[in-house]
Amino acid sequence: MPQISANALAIPASGIRRIYELASALDDVIQLSIGEPERPVARHILDAGASAWNADVTNYTPNSGMALLRSAIATKLERDNHYRVDDDQIHVTAGGSQALHMAMLLTLSAGDEILIPDPGYATFSMIPTLLGAVPVPYHLKAEDDFQPSLSNLEQCVTSRTKVLLINSPSNPLGVVYSAEKLTELLQFAAKHDLWVISDEVYEYFTFTHAFTSVASLDSDGRVFSVYSVSKTYGLTGGRVGYLVTPPGVASPFRAAQEATVSCVNSPAQLAVLSALEGPQDCVHEARVHYGNNVEAACAVLDQRGFKYQRPQGAFYIWIDVSHASEGDVAAWAEHFLLTQRVAVAPGIAFGPAGEGWIRICAAGKTAPLLEAVKRLPAPHHG
């Protein structure tokens, strides 16, 4: 029999999804392993999508998305992200995940290397592996407040490096990079002639630090910016994101889009148009709720003596459980789920540097979150 491709076989299974699927088969689980906002989607967004289905607005759209939606995205980028692009630099995708995939597809050939954060979101390594490229992790250390170190990045660069991937606000760490740090990273990319892929899907959820879009600092057109409405508007199953590219990329993007999904479904695009152009109270309320959840959970972690990374953005808390996990946090997370009925994402699912840590999602209801944190085994002091 012929064999499945080596690239496909090389993709590791997601350690986050493993916990999620185990938890789905159990009763009374507090689910903190995936980034799923539990707040209801705003009515005007749902109505716009429903109206489109009911009116049979179900035809193909252009590969890069409806003109009206791309125009609305351009307005949003200028207003909120402080940079201006032409509509043909904006491409609507099937979620932020496909936007990431397309950014890498456009910038990496087989054998090329991409620098990815470790710990970092699992698909940062899965996508290049699927493309036959090589993910090269750059270590983010607790002692550096999980900020990228230029000296560490310099050690990771080779003649095959083509892309630097950065993620702020960070999943899983909740770290938000300053404009100064982003400028440093852009200068590093320019020095080594690298593309920059910037994952900004948590752009609206910052608590203590201002958010800066990398493209607003980019003077030479090397940044691909990845966005999503999944987290912003709670539309995780709507599967709409968008990729903002440097000039001149529209033709290869559209050809690649035709070869993958052709276009994103029309009713979902109209729901997102309504989300962008309608009232933004739901985003503000979500930010306040997530911030309150984070503060309440961190208070319990402080009281119980945990070491953790206090998030500056996103809606996750990165917690050190190395005192309990005995060097195998994936096995510990499974055992914790089975015995305590709490699903957490094992840190190793985000890269080797995540061993001994877990990520919990603070986007749900407050009471179960605090109950889950109380069930974590506290460090022994003294």
Topology:
Elements lengths: L5 H5 L4 H10 L5 E2 L11 H12 L12 H15 L8 E4 L1 H13 L5 E6 L4 H8 L3 E6 L10 H7 L4 E7 L11 H13 L3 E5 L23 E6 L12 E4 L5 H9 L7 H12 L3 H23 L4 E2 L6 E5 L1 H4 L3 H12 L1 E2 L1 E2 L10 E5 L4 H10 L7
Parallel strand pairs: 1-11, 3-4, 3-5, 5-6, 6-7
Antiparallel strand pairs: 2-8, 7-8, 9-10, 10-13, 12-13
Helix pairs in contact: 2-13, 3-10, 4-10, 5-6, 11-14
Structure characterization notes:
This protein is of the alpha/beta class and 382 residues long. It is built from 14 helices and 13 strands. It has a seven-stranded mixed β-sheet with strand order 2-8-7-6-5-3-4, sandwiched between helices. Strands 9-10-13-12 form a four-stranded antiparallel β-sheet. Strand 9 and strand 10 form a beta hairpin. The longest helix has 23 residues, at 281-303. It is globular.
Key features of this structure:
382 residues, alpha/beta, 7-stranded mixed beta sheet, 4-stranded antiparallel beta sheet, 13 strands, globular
Quick rundown:
The chain has 382 residues and is an alpha/beta fold.
Main sheet: strands, sense, barrel: 7 strands, mixed
Return Rg in Å.
20 Å
Oligomer: single chain
Strand element count: 13
Low-pLDDT runs of 5+ residues are: none
Strand content: 5-15%
- Going across the major beta sheet, what is the strand order? 2-8-7-6-5-3-4
User: What's the pLDDT, averaged over the residues?
Assistant: 96
Q: Order of SSEs, N→C?
A: HHEHHEHEHEHEHEEEHHHEEHHEEEH
Helicity, as a percent range: 40-55%
How would the global form be characterised?
A: globular
Structural class: alpha/beta
- Count of alpha/pi helices: 14
The end-to-end distance, rounded to whole angstroms, is 61 Å
